[in-house]
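Example S7 (structure tokens).
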């Protein structure tokens, strides 16, 4: 496999590099999609590159499928030859996956899935995916998806104001990557401290990271779960303030426990859907 990357100046996908590499290596399949990219993906640009070299275009929208379904992110359906996705994450269904494809690839993909990769189907999961898909077609889900983006932008704005370095400078979707290099705190150290304070993130590499993937420079945080609980931009500003406190005092257990108590108090005002209050 040959990988394209992001531009060093702004950390946006380097479509020129992708085109150049495609012309050089003539791939049979061109993949687009990401696990930690906070900006809009230009599927039409990838379609153009794939057409230039005669490649099949596969778009993976595992992270953004809920946003795509609601119209909060452009869709690759009708542009890509194959679209893959999880059914959880922003789609907010059970853990699973789905493959959509153009008719020309249906037979090959069906054969690869069964009997090639899949055994007995989990019918209960299939039924739950159907429920999630039906929910994704409702006005309420559309409002939820747009609120995810609104909350993410509010949190990114708050973090920027507090001197954090965000990859690409912000976000257009549900997540953001925070480069902690200027704070002098490794991502894994920050993630563990934030977890003790009741704020769940994961350590994550940043573009051109000088540290290893096992001990990276950044953290990744998203807003789907807090949005599902009914939190809004005001709460995102509080989260941004807590992140600043925890990163600055990551070795101070008393501070971490104080923040944890404040987080717990705020969360008590926004119970998880389906669970009783208290």
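Recovered sequence:
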């Amino acid at each position: 496999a040959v990988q394209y990357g992001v531009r060093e100046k702004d950390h946006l996908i380097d479509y020129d590099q992708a085109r150049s590499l495609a012309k050089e290596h003539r791939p049979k399949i061109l993949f687009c999609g990401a696990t930690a990219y906070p900006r809009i993906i230009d599927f039409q640009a990838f379609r153009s590159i794939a057409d230039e070299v005669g490649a099949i275009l596969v778009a993976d929208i595992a992270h953004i499928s809920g946003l795509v379904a609601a119209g909060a992110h452009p869709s690759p359906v009708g542009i890509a030859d194959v679209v893959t996705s999880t059914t959880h994450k922003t789609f907010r269904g059970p853990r699973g996956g789905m493959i959509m494809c153009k008719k020309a690839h249906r037979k090959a993909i069906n054969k690869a899935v069964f009997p090639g990769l899949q055994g007995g189907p989990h019918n209960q999961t299939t039924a739950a995916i159907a429920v999630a898909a039906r929910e994704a077609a409702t006005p309420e889900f559309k409002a939820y998806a747009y609120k995810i983006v609104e909350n993410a932008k509010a949190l990114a704005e708050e973090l920027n104001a507090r001197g954090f370095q965000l990859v690409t400078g912000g976000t257009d979707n549900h997540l953001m990557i925070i480069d902690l290099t200027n704070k002098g705190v490794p991502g894994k150290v920050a993630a563990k401290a934030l977890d003790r304070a009741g704020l769940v993130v994961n350590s994550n590499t940043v573009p051109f990271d000088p540290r290893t993937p096992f001990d990276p420079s950044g953290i990744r945080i998203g807003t789907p779960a807090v949005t599902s609980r009914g939190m809004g931009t005001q709460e995102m500003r509080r989260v941004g303030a807590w992140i600043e406190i925890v990163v600055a005092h990551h070795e101070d257990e008393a501070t971490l426990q104080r923040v944890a108590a404040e987080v717990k108090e705020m969360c008590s005002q926004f119970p998880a859907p389906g669970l009783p209050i208290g």
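Notes on this example. Residues 15-136 form a domain with the Aspartate Aminotransferase; domain 2 fold (CATH 3.40.640.10).
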